[in-house]
Structure formats: structure tokens, C-alpha cells
Amino acid sequence: MFTPGPTDVHPVVLRAMAEPLINPDIDVRFFKIYDSLCNKIRKVAGTKNSLFLFAGEGMVALDSAVANLVEPGDQVLSISSGVFGDGFTDLIKNYRGKPVVVKSEYDDVVTPNQVDRALEKNPRIRVATFVHCETPSGTISPLRQIGKVCNDHDLLLITDAVSTLAGVPVNADKNHVDICLGASQKCFSSPPGLAIISVSDRAWERIKRRKTGVESFYLDLKTWKNMWLKDRTFPYTQSTSEVVALNKSLDLILEEGLNSIYNRHSVVAEYVRSSCEKMGLNLFPKRQEICSDTVTVLKIPSGIGETKLRERMRTKHGIIIAGSWGKLAGRVIRLGHMGYNAQKAKAERVVEALSETLKSSK
Amino acid sequence: MFTPGPTDVHPVVLRAMAEPLINPDIDVRFFKIYDSLCNKIRKVAGTKNSLFLFAGEGMVALDSAVANLVEPGDQVLSISSGVFGDGFTDLIKNYRGKPVVVKSEYDDVVTPNQVDRALEKNPRIRVATFVHCETPSGTISPLRQIGKVCNDHDLLLITDAVSTLAGVPVNADKNHVDICLGASQKCFSSPPGLAIISVSDRAWERIKRRKTGVESFYLDLKTWKNMWLKDRTFPYTQSTSEVVALNKSLDLILEEGLNSIYNRHSVVAEYVRSSCEKMGLNLFPKRQEICSDTVTVLKIPSGIGETKLRERMRTKHGIIIAGSWGKLAGRVIRLGHMGYNAQKAKAERVVEALSETLKSSK
User: A23–B6: do the CB atoms touch at under 8 Å?
Assistant: First the structure.
């Protein structure tokens, strides 16, 4: 499986999934594991903010962030260079906010200058949504510079770091991220089913001052603040096994060390990109500098169908790679080299198989 | 662990949690497992309706049901005899519906007559919420009769069957349940992390005719209808390992046979109730007939603290039992005998330990 999340899962983490259950509602051992896990994720994200986990997929965290930070009528900056950026625009509309969109094509990213100009023009904007890595198109955006511009304009910044956390540096606090979003199945290489959210004091302040309530119980961050952060009671039964497994993933990550992990991602990504270009494939992103080190997206050469290509990779080589969605469907293939899958040996096998598949398809 | 969900998990199911991941977005093997699992749950629920699973805890299904069936200003009947019934009333208010509440005390249940009278008085009501078993207080309500009354008044019935599905008969279609809600960690005895929802054609019709949108992406049932049921694409990455594990739980359940399972729950519950009464404990529910066969809730004798009692059960006997919440906190203990935990031998150990603990506390 060389897909951009879910990734293969380390055997040690899989074994943790099979441990007998601890009661998450009343057993203090579970509370300790949960606290410890949140602290470890804080280290990876580079944040001292409140942090907790939803039972659910990454999307539940994106949905919750917008549900809580946006009120009807609010102007919200949507910085979008891809499928998930556009998704944020839709979420803002759903919650009856008014998105002010700064966009780029999917093979490019939005520049800090574009963001600055939009904010100069719309001084009432107080919240921005931003996607660090667009997994469907393989681009990574300049979080540091965009975080700075947003901070200069005194904005609250919601950042989808789902496919960068534990793969490339995020440094949430340094980069002025108020809400940082993640998921278990990307670079953490745990099974899917947990969504991560961190919330800054400024974001809590804004939530406190809302004039309207958040309709959903499940997505309401106030519930977490009042029940878990204050009273140490979970709002609902937590996904014990997945929490225990993700905790194990974080142990492996911190044992290896973040610098070593970022380096490993960078080396493998560089190898995948250059090897693919050598075999005549074109990267989907316009420039090398905006290619994410967690996923490589390649244009499909004319004359080869995406389905056929992926099918041959699977049946002949036992390797599962991904296509993409929306307007990218059928036009690109995606190689995920994140987390446990960011290994040179694995990447070499995939590159060889891809090369063979392309030759045989001619 | 003798708590009313999560329960202990069968070793075969735990092993399934540790299987290497299948890609849930693109691997057809996963689609087959998912379909097969949904069909098995349909058998247990007694429904031919659409059925699918949220990545999330049971609460996400309750939240979604109300989010989708209730529009601002709608009068909605809330049938409440406990914590979760009251929770539905809150959800209805959150979504700006107008709850018409028929209530009982927590140690009793609402009668079909009460429901009938409320509906006679409020003929504009089109939706009702109902909790089959109130896990915090141990009562079970007469679903068959209440379903009939609701159907006579042409209502859409939302039923929380979280702690009855696969423990006592639900017969959703026969009992006119339009939205049936469940969770993986109760009588299915799988780890927590999956919520179950079934949706009748009448309910889909009402959702289609909504004048206002559902704000949340994650809770929106239309997304599931358009993406999964129509286009066979999941709205987000599914919790592979938990789906595979729950599928294994369902295999065990259907292998044993539903009648045998219902009988096992009934025998163990009867044993627990009578043994506890013999040792001088009083059942919290007013009458035997309204005691659920999945959980027994007992009043704590005066002079013994709940925490101390539970603590001694844990340290001396290695058995974890539950307290309760809200206005029941500190007043009752709860013995969960659901799913894999509904075994005579286990129940005997718990009863003995409880008897010893009570004697030693005198």
C-alpha cells in the first residue's frame, strides 16, 4: 500500500490494536494514556495549546473547526489551492459564513502576497482557513509566510495539517496556527478513525464570544472544554483501541526523533520525484519547491488509462497506489510516501514496478 | 470489565483489529466487507432500509439523526425516560426545533398512552425521538407499542437502539422505526469507534424536502446518499480496522443465532437481578418488566459510597463495574451484561464479588 493515507501500519501498532480493551469512561489508566498521547502530538505539532481527539475521520475536525469559528454572516478568508481548500470554502458557506476566496490553480499554491492583498481589501475578516498540504494534488503551501501575514492582520488561522503532521515540520505555535487539524492515518501511520484538533486561547476566546450556538453536539468544542478539559469527563465513549494504537505510533515517532523523520521524508520524496522524472513522467505540481515530501502526484502519460495502470500495479506487483478526485480524477496517480511508508526500500520497489508497468503499457 | 459498553471483546475480534490494513478508499475487498457488514447488521436490526456506519461514537449517529430530520421551527415529540431521552430534547433544541416532551421519572418508562395523548394534542408533529434502552438507568421501553402509536399518527420514528441491538429484539421495520441507531461497543462487543444508522424511504423523503440545508458535512445524510449509496464513494476514509473487527463480531453473532443470543441475555439478566435482590440490593427501575436484559442498575445501599464500592470491586476482584451520570451519579451502580459479557459464568463471578464487597463494607 503506497497510498497517501491510510498507510501501512507498523506491526507494533497493529499489535496494540489487539490489546484487550480498557474502559475509557472510568479507568484512570485510559486517562493517562490519553493525556500522554495528546502531549506527544503537541510535541509533533509544535504547540502548547489545548489538544484533543475526536472519534471520527479527519473530516470531522475540519467540519468542527469551521462550525465553531464561523458564525452566520462572518467574512472568512479561504486560502485555496486544491480540493480540501475548496472544501473549506463549502464548509464556510454551509455554516452561513461569507467566504472571501484567494485561489490558485491546483498545480500551484497561493502566495503570501495574494493573502496580504485580500486582507488589505477586506479588513473585517477575522478568520482564515488554510491547507498545508493538498494531498489530492501533492502541493505544499508556505505555512510560515502565510501564518505571518495572517498574524500581521490579527487573524485566527485554521490549518489543515492532516497530511503534514509528523511528515514535514508544522511548528503550529511559531507559525501562528490557532486551530491545527490532523488525522491518525496519514504520517502517524495508525489506522484511520481518530481526528486531531488543537485550539489556541485566542480561538477559545472567539468561541466563548459567539452570539449563536453551535448546533451539533458532536462538533461543539465547548462541550470538550467544559467536559474534558475542565471536568475530566469525556463527552462520549472514546475509541480505546485506536487511542492506544496511536499512542504507540507516537512512541515510535518520538523514539526516531522528529528531525530524523523529516529528513527521511525529504530523502524518499526527492528519490521518488527524480526517479519518476527520469522515467519520463511529469510531476503534477508546477514547480519542485511546492511538491510535498509526503505525497507525489504525477500526470498520467497519454495513451495509458489510470484504472489500467493502477490495476496492473496491483495485480502484477501487489502494490496499491491512488488516483485522485474531482477535476483531477483520471488525470493523475498519487504515490504516498508518508509515515511508515516513507522508506527508501519501499519507494524503490514502487518505482521499479511503476517503470515496468509504463514500459509494458506502451 | 462488566460495564454497559464498552464490553470485553472476543479474542477473534481483537485479532481482526490487528490485521494489516486494507485501503478503504480504493480496494474493492473493503467495499465487499463493508457491504457484507451492513447486511448482517440489517438482519440483527430487522430492517431492509439503507444502513451505513459513521466513523465515530454512537453519539454522532444521534446527532446526525436530529440534524437531518429536524428543521428550525419543527415541533418534534421527545419521548424521554432517562439521560439519553433528555439528550434528544437538547439536540432538538440545538437544531432549533420545538420539542414536545412526554416524560417519566428515570426509574420508569413512558407509556404508549402518554404518547398517544401528546400526539392527539399536537397534530402537527411529524417526528419523534425515542430511546429503546436507557443504559444509565437500566430501563427498557415498549418499542412495539410505541412504534405502533407513532405509526398510527403517521410519525417518523427515530430510535436509539444503541444498547439493545444484538441484545434484545428490535425488529426495526415491524416496529415502524424509520431511523435506527446503534454503536459498535455495546451488544456487538466490538471496540468503540463506529456508529450505525439506518434510514427508511420515508425518512429520505423528508430529508429531500428540507427547506434548509444541514450545516455539518460530517453529519449530513444526503452526502452519504449521493456519494456512497449512489456513487459508491465514501465521503471520507473509513475506519478500516474497526469495520473489519465489527464484521467479525457480526459473524460470531449470526453464527450463534439471534434467538440463542436473546435467550442468553435474558437468562443472564434474570440471574443477575434475582441474585442481587437476594443479597438485599434494590433494582433502580420501579418494576421487573421494565428492566433491560442488557444492563442492571442497582441502588447503592446507604452507608456505602459508590466510589469505594467500585474501587474495592476493582482492586480486590479485578472487576470493573460502572456508576452513572447526571442526577444518577453516586446513587446507583451498573452491571453491564451485554454481548460477549452476557455469560452466566462471568455474571456469577461478578455477583460473588459484589456480595463479598457488600458484606465487607458493612
Answer: yes
